[in-house]
Amino acid sequence: MTKGSGTPANMLLPLLTRRSLLTGAGGVSVSASLLGAAPNGSKGHVAVIGAGVFGAWTAHHLLAAGHKVTLIDAHGPAHSRASSGGESRMTRAAYGKDEIYARMASDSLSQWKNLSLVSGLPIFHETGVLFFSAARDAYLTDSIAVARRLKLPTEELTPAEMARRYPAIDFTGITTGLIEPGFGALMARRSVQTLVDRFVRAGGHWRHAEARPGASRGGKLTNLRLSDNSLLEADQFVFALGPWLGKTFPALLADRIFATRQEVFFFAAPAGDKRFGPGAMPGWADMNGGDLYYGFPDLEGRGVKFARDTHGVRVDPDIQSRKPTDAALAEIIAFRDRRFPSLRSAPLTESRVCQYENSSNGDFLIDRHPTMSNVILVGGGSGHGFKHGPEVGRIAAEIAASGGAQTEPRFTLATKATTQARAVH
Ligand SMILES: Cc1cc2nc3c(=O)[nH]c(=O)nc-3n(C[C@H](O)[C@H](O)[C@H](O)COP(=O)(O)OP(=O)(O)OC[C@H]3O[C@@H](n4cnc5c(N)ncnc54)[C@H](O)[C@@H]3O)c2cc1C
After folding, report:
1. Would you say residue 3 has pLDDT above 80?
2. Could you tell me where in the chain the CATH 3.50.50.60 domains are found?
3. In Å, how far are 187, 223, 243 from 91, measured between CA atoms?
4. Cβ(115)–Cβ(129) under 8 Å?
5. Does the domain spanning 9-82+189-257+361-415 belong to CATH 3.40.50.970?
6. Residue 350: exposed, middle, or buried by beta-carbon count in 10 A (0-12, 13-18, 19+)?
7. I need a labelling partner for 75 at 20 to 30 A (CA). Which of 113, 205, 211, 269 fits?
8. Of all protein residues, whose CA lies closest to atom 4 belonging to ligand 1?
């Protein structure tokens, strides 16, 4: 990745959303800045620490709004141990009664699609997403009601219809399904790295360094101390550190962000079997009586993906073993053999060990630091954050640009408890 300078503002224009064109909340019109002037840093310098999906989109929106922006990461954008460093992430609008996330997912999707349009390789695979369950529970009923309100083309499917459309899946015991046609798979690492590359080409500054809060004065952070022993001054600081938030702000966040071990497995489809391709098989989630499993078709030849959504044990992202466990693999294979019988004895092609960075209930954290007024904390993706990167970044950028406070209670620090009680799925 090279640092460019003076790239015209219109390089960023394809990433504008209709929503940001029309609204630009918080008294700051990101889009007006984009349309009116090249990013020239005239609105002050913001340092964004963490180049995962949240930090990368925050940096993008701030640059587009006319700030000088320095994006810093200790290991590089969407690196192997970052929560954003996996191959694929699901985007969906089905969130039960949580309309706030359905809206954010929809608003983010158009930005992902725009990024996909300007990327050399696909960022988004429109596979559709299928939820299925043994019972039409409140989650599915509420998801359908929200989809109707948002005018999304979500359809409810009978088991017979699902079996006809998706012959690779055995729907025994399933009574209902919900398909979201416009959604699908985001190529996680690629998308973040593409976005950061575009940020740099458009005049954003990039530093590969570990950053720690440095001096503070008058209730404001003055600078960062970088791992090369230099100091970096800025007017505002956005810390989007994913599972590392609690390590940098231990007193505040060590008990509010819970990093849990998660394992993901890929298996080879039978040779020449088109039922497992992205045109034939959707992204899917089996509600499985509350013990949810999910996965993807064979995207770009990587293999058919399987994961269990249940939180694993608490881990430290720096030192947890990245070697998959036999127990997790055995659970996945037992599930796979039941639901995807033609994958019985399919060879394991890859596995990954990552971590969710959970808030107490699954709501995001996008708020000012309680004692350093020019510091904004962003995180708590909680196993569902990736798809929302564009909107989380927009909200964080607008708080930084407006100088205002977070007005959505669900994203405030005050609502983040110290015991885990997952409520967002
Ligand atoms: C297995 C798995 C499956 C998932 N599936 C989905 C899904 O299907 N759909 C979905 O929407 N979401 C999903 N998620 C959740 C989503 O991927 C995360 O919520 C999201 O990627 C978090 O991004 P982030 O930017 O907050 O954190 P990260 O990607 O972890 O980025 C934080 C960055 O901060 C950097 N950093 C930390 N400390 C410092 C420091 N002191 N100095 C400099 N840099 C620092 C790190 O190096 C890192 O790059 C999944 C997560 C996992 C693990």
Report:
1. no
2. 9-82+189-257+361-415
3. 10, 36, 21
4. no
5. no
6. middle
7. 113
8. 383
Tokens of 124: 């988004």
Q: How far is ligand 1, taken at its centre, from the CA of residue 82, in Å?
A: 5
| Pairing status of strand 68-73 against strand 205-208 | parallel
Is this prediction's pTM over 0.85? yes
pLDDT at 22: 27
- Identify the three-state secondary structure at position 7: coil
Q: What does the DSSP 8-state code read for residue 348?
A: E
How do residues 353-395 score in pLDDT, each as one tens digit? Answer: 999 999 999 999 999 999 999 999 999 999 999 999 999 999 9
Could you tell me the fold of the domain covering 123-186+258-354? D-Amino Acid Oxidase; Chain A, domain 2 (3.30.9)
> How far apart (Å, rounded) are the C-alpha atoms in residues 156 and 179?
6
Q: Are 70 and 48 in contact (CB under 8 A)?
A: yes
DSSP string, 233-249: E-SEEEE--GGGHHHHS
- Ligand 1 centre distance from Cα of residue 53 (Å): 7
Query: What is the β-pairing status of strands 220-221 and 205-208?
Result: unpaired
Amino acid at 84: S
Q: Which residues contact 154 (CB under 8 A, 6 or more apart)?
A: 93, 94, 143, 144, 147, 148, 178, 179, 180, 181
Packing angle between helix 53-64 and helix 389-402, nearest 10 degrees?
50
Phi, psi for 421 (deg, rounded to 5): -145, 85
Pocket test for ligand 1, best of 384, 387, 391, 422 (most atoms within 8 A of CB): 384
CATH 3.30.9.10 residue window(s) in the chain: 123-186+258-354
**Distance (Å) from CA 226 to ligand 1 centroid:** 21
Q: Which two tokens stand for residue 171?
A: 């729907």
Residue type, 93: A
